């Protein structure tokens, strides 16, 4: 990990201790649901997963699940289309000269990997769990871009890191000192040269495939099989469950129920 990355991770860890605490029983991020009736006051969302509400918990779950495909997409975009080979040595179209790298996705993917590794240190220390054993992302003894991580290998490493977080997500949500910071760092804030997952997904892809008709669920209002999950993204950070026909919208208090219904179709 580079010196600049170490400084960023140290700053991120130091900010954890100053995270404010909200009243017991409510989401630590002070989330509130805005009722359809504008005259009705917003209702604070209860913390149903540790100190996080359903919206925050499933948003974080979704953001983590996007990372392997996102990382693969970013590494795929490093080399212009004229490059003939990505593995071992990048070569251009003429005289086997090195092909230029696109620095944006290179820096963003490296920073996202460093961020995940840093959080395994923080979370592992809090929970008393060993960090996952993953391969080194890049060999710093070689010139940058001399032997880049292949998209497939990047996907494999990111999947290992993400799986480590997902099996511990309920425990992480129960850590009052870091749950909100972890959520915001992964979903929104990121670091200077690597924003949150939803912004990166909008910038580099991959495009989320349209939901299959078989994945829709029965609507409690109109009875049609048209209920779907609107997942968070950079333009709209809120998760919502709604009917595609009658526009019924689920109460956020039931998100946990619907998230379990949709788990199989979004795996």
Provide the number of structural domains. 2
Order of helices and strands: HEEHHHHHHEEEH
Strand order of the largest sheet: 3-4-5
Shape: globular
Count of beta strands: 5
Number of helical segments with 4 or more residues: 8
Mean pLDDT equals 74
As a whole number of angstroms, the C-alpha radius of gyration is 21 Å
Structural class: mainly alpha
Short descriptors:
disordered N terminus, globular, 2 domains, mainly alpha, 267 residues, three-stranded antiparallel β-sheet, 8 helices, two-stranded antiparallel sheet
Short description:
This protein is mainly alpha-helical.
Word description of this protein:
This protein is mainly α and 267 residues long. It is built from eight helices and five strands, in the order H-E-E-H-H-H-H-H-H-E-E-E-H. The protein has helices at 3-16, 54-76, 103-127, 151-166, 169-173, 179-189, 197-204, 255-266, and strands spanning 32-33, 43-44, 217-218, 225-230, 240-243. The strands form two sheets. It has a three-stranded antiparallel β-sheet, covered by helices on one side. A two-stranded antiparallel ribbon has the order 1-2. Strand 3 (217-218) and strand 4 form a beta hairpin. Helix 2 packs antiparallel against helix 4 (151-166) and helix 3 runs parallel beside helix 4 (151-166). Residues 1-23, 81-100 and 139-147 have low confidence and may be disordered.
